[in-house]
Every structure is written in structure tokens, then in C-alpha cells.
Amino acid sequence: MGKSLRVYSYFSLPADLAGEMREWPEFVSGEGYDVRLRDCVTDEDVSVRYVEATDDPAGSEGAYIAVSSTAAGSLFDRVAGRVVIALSGRSDYLTVNRHDCIA
Predict the structure, then answer these.
(1) Most-buried pick from 32, 35, 38, 95 (CB within 10 A)?
(2) Which domain holds residue 43?
(3) DSSP-assigned letters across all residues of 16-85
(4) What global pTM score does this model have?
(5) pLDDT tens-digit readout, 64-98
(6) Cα three-residue angle 76-26-68, rounded to 5 degrees
(7) CATH no. for residue 16?
(8) How far is CA 43 from CA 2, 38, 51, 74, in A?
(9) In a domain, 62, yes or no
């Protein structure tokens, strides 16, 4: 079973999340806020993507970074931590919400 969370912020100063993780051995692809990572040993696949409020069918209250994983593994934990640390250095406001697990 997977994990998913959302990180809300003002996004007034851009952050290069892909650049933050580009040197990781699990890095597959990415640019700016959007990143894909995969652990070849555990098969865990983690994605990070920027979602505009207008793109969210649930009608969220603002833009957010979605972090989701195909499995509840350590790669998700590392990515979530890196995202929060990187964004907190660019904003005075962050809110992190856990979301329903994905299959």
C-alpha cells in the first residue's frame, strides 16, 4: 500500500526540487518541482509534482506539491523530508497534510 501527502505553500520563490535530488541513485527524471524516483531494490516508485489549485478536481484551497509513493518505504520518507526542508528554506508558510493511501 502506498503513501501520499500534500505540501501547501505560497510558492513565491521557486524551488528546484529535482536539483535537490538529482544526485540520488534513485533519481529517474525531473525538472523544477516535478521529480520521479525509483528504488530498484524495493521497487518503490516516488513522484513529486506541482499541482495548481485549478488542476485539482477536489477543489483544494491553493497550489501544492503532491508527494506519492507506490509503497510505504524509506524512499518516500527521504523524499518527503527533502521536499519539506527545501520548501521551508523558500517560504515562511508550509502546511503538510497526509492523504488517503494509494494502491
Answers:
(1) 35
(2) 3-98
(3) -HHHHHTTSTTEEEEETTEEEEE-TTT--EEEEEEE-GGG-TT--SS-EEEEEESSSSHHHHHHHHHHHH
(4) 0.87
(5) 999 999 988 999 999 999 999 999 988 878 999 98
(6) 30
(7) 3.30.310
(8) 12, 7, 25, 11
(9) yes
